[in-house]
Amino acid sequence: MRLPVGKLGRYAVAEQSLTIVDRSRPRLGRRIIPTTVRYPVIPATAASGTLARDPFPLVVFAPGYRQCDRSYRFLLHEWATAGYVVAAVEFPLTSCHVSAPDESDLVNQPADVSSVIRQLVAISRRPHSPLSGLVNPAEIGVAGHSDGGDTVAAIAANTCCRDRRVAAAVVLAGAEWPPMPGRYFARPAPPMLFVQGTDDTWNPPEASMQLYRADTAGPRYYLGLFGADHFTPYEGSRAPEPIVARVTTDFLDRYLAGQRPAAAAMRRAAQVAGVAALATGGDLPRRNGG
Fold it and tell me: Residue 263 burial by CB count (10 A; 0-12/13-18/19+): exposed, middle or buried?
């Protein structure tokens, strides 16, 4: 029987640090991709960290430029408490640990994420792995913020980088990255949720809207956060981060875990007068009250 997914706070959470090495692109040499995996543990045995020996959906998270896993720890932890295996990558040339980051390396980051997906699925299949049996290879999603959102958008919707294992994508303050080769939305994309603050000066709302409106073939949603900036909704636990956590979890429940009632729950969680609103089908959210 499948363990339940979808309720924030249902599971205790454990962590595992991995070093993913990708040698599949000879021109780049070895790509070393540190990855922190948060995963659910059975509540009754949480003290001992016993794994819930049942496959859960996997969400691979891509941080923004000069950002690392720790900046998003509250949001990533919340997804894991709801029953998701959450793997946060640190990109080789743009993470917070790089003294001279190179943003042009963003074009190589979609393949980094795909490599992490591939290797985590393989690790989960190993009988004596600490993550043995945890990842459901049929339920894989991606999420990312800022440049990480650009990375995720390319994985989900650009012909250069489309990973067909990805069943759902969450783009937090992301955009089309102009140097990225290929075409966006030339082929059907998985269900996508775009989240954007109206007062974001780093990634202006028009950038998210461009992606959202270009996605005309599949289910897509736009969560507008009124008065929100580029970082607060995703880094830390202050408002409106709890709204982002709830809506993104509902989206993953619906399109990754296959729970149809979660679509209505997502709409309810997103409608907060003067704070947040959700739109779909190319429409834009309307601010009510506040």
Answer: middle
